[in-house]
């Protein structure tokens, strides 16, 4: 008998992990599973980044680094953010972390506690809820699924949900699990509400570099009035195909970095030394490889949207990230169970993201495998 804390007991295990486990079980039995449940690029990390890591290792960059990150990386991040219109951030405003997830975790630990109100826009990435709950916060949720996953038409609902009691809103554009990019008008609406009710906003921009149709993503913190209210989150996992390297960061007012530095210093100490050196190379010399990966994702998006539409299934066309929400039965859990058990296609139920009636499809997979998935779903009458 162990006496577990309330803070872990109020959190559910990751729904995405449950699917991966099921897929792994089937594969262990020799079944070929088309895995559309994963949240990572199917590409290898670009070679120049690997070379930079190797060079750093050879040069003996193997010890602890300054807790908030090596100066060269923080400078490179500040330059990248300034290029995105976020010129309020200098190196002193940046915390380099082992993955964007850790950056978010530190922000929640630093800024929210028992009784605080956190607002999410559904469908929302699964870990926001878990992190808010671990911190003890209460959640309010605003649905965007009814509006094609756009925020602008959901602003009235957001205005009705937030109040002077609200402490934090999380915005994620391009978003996981839907790939929608929020309009400037939507972001301005968020700004007006944040100023009116004096709350902070986490802008999770981890998919900012992965967009289609020449869409540009505005950084929330670049809007007048949001400079000191925005906590900007990004990382290297998605844009540079570096999920396993664990490297991310947040940028925030200096006092937030200082306070979060206690959580950071007493938990992870610092991000991995030679990985930080590779991060500089990623930011400075990898534009071409990022563009090539984006082009591949865009082709696959076009392919899937067309394939679904030719079968009478209307999907909201994603403008970024590498996910789309496929409308399925109301009982999305049952649909996803059938998809994996009968068609051997792994997807994630929308209800895991707060939006039943959909399955999240990751198209970070080859066209051949996407075609195979469609054929199998069709053969099992799931499309
Ligand atoms: N934010 C969103 C919306 C994500 O989908 C993810 C990864 O799945 C992350 C943040 C964190 O990624 P990482 O910890 O690999 O940087």
From TrEMBL:
Quaternary structure, from the entry: Homodimer.
CDD domains assigned: AAT_like
Enzyme Commission identifier(s): 2.6.1.-
PROSITE patterns xref list: AA_TRANSFER_CLASS_1
Superkingdom in the source lineage: Archaea
Signal peptide annotation: none
Domain named Aminotransferase class I/classII large: residues: 32-377
Protein keywords: Aminotransferase, Pyridoxal phosphate, Transferase
GO molecular function terms noted in the UniProt entry: pyridoxal phosphate binding; transaminase activity
One Pfam family here: Aminotran_1_2
Cofactor(s) listed: pyridoxal 5'-phosphate
Annotated protein name in UniProt: Aminotransferase
Family as reported in the entry's similarity comment: Belongs to the class-I pyridoxal-phosphate-dependent aminotransferase family.
BP-aspect Gene Ontology terms: amino acid metabolic process
């Amino acid at each position: 008998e162990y006496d577990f804390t309330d803070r872990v007991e109020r959190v559910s295990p990751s729904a995405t992990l449950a699917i991966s486990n099921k897929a792994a079980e089937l594969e262990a039995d020799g079944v070929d599973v088309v895995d559309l449940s994963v949240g990572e690029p199917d590409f290898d990390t670009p070679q120049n980044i690997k070379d930079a890591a190797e060079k750093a290792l050879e040069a003996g960059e193997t010890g602890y680094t300054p807790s908030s990150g090596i100066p060269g990386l923080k400078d490179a991040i500040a330059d990248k953010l300034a290029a995105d219109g976020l010129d309020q951030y200098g190196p002193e405003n940046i915390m380099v972390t082992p993955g964007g997830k850790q950056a978010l975790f530190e922000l929640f630990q630093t800024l929210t506690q028992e009784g605080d109100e956190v607002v999410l826009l559904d469908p929302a990435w699964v870990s926001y809820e878990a992190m808010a709950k671990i911190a003890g916060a209460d959640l309010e949720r605003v649905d965007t699924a009814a509006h094609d996953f756009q925020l602008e038409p959901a602003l009235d609902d957001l205005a009705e949900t937030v109040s002077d009691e609200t402490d934090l809103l999380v915005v994620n554009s391009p978003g996981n699990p839907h790939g929608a990019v929020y309009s400037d008008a939507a972001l301005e609406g968020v700004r007006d509400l944040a100023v009116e009710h004096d709350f902070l906003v986490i802008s999770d921009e981890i998919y900012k570099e992965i967009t289609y149709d020449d869409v540009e993503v505005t950084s929330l913190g670049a809007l007048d009035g949001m400079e000191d209210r925005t906590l900007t989150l990004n990382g290297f996992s998605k844009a540079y195909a570096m999920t396993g390297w664990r490297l991310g960061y947040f940028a925030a007012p200096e006092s937030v970095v200082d306070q979060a530095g206690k959580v950071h210093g007493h938990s992870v100490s610092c991000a991995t030394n030679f990985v930080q050196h590779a991060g500089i190379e990623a930011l400075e010399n990898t534009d071409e490889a990022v563009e090539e990966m984006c082009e591949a994702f865009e082709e696959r998006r076009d392919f899937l949207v067309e394939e679904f539409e030719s079968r009478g299934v209307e999907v909201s066309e994603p403008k970024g990230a590498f996910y789309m929400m496929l409308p399925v039965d109301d009982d999305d859990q049952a649909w996803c169970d059938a998809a994996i058990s009968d068609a051997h296609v792994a997807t994630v139920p929308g209800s895991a993201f707060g939006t039943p009636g959909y399955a999240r499809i990751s198209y970070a997979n080859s066209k051949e495998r996407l075609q195979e998935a469609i054929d199998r779903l069709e053969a099992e009458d799931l499309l």
